[in-house]
Amino acid sequence: MNKVMLIGNVGKEPDVRYYDQDQAVAQFPLATTERGYTLQNGTKVPEHTDWHTITVWRGLAKIVEKYVHKGDKLYIEGRIRYRSYDDQKGQRRYVTEILAENMELLTPKPVANDKDTVSLASQAQPQDNSQEATTAPEDNSALPF
Questions:
Q1: Residues of the chain with pLDDT > 90: what percent?
Q2: What is the pTM of this model?
């Protein structure tokens, strides 16, 4: 398996398409940058940016459609897929893309007072209904801060 983990910035607005009764697929470029550095002998290695084509399917694609925009910083987990096709001129083209299986938004979003604002974590993962996570002490005087 070719598993990958990437942290990068979205290069343009995601392209979202629907098929087969409300199923979605989204595609967007993600830029990852390796910082420049200097070797012990003084040689400078410049910064290098790679562009990856990210493809997401179904529910994750719908989340991308709502919440992911150009410039956002994302964490992506997925696998590498290689494919080829013949273009309109009959030339063979090769494509390398990342099929995202998990994603986290790393760009802080402004807090809104909308009732419609929902966290990605609550949509993408089952909620933990444990009592300890939702209760807070009513007397704040006992808190150490």
A1: 69
A2: 0.69
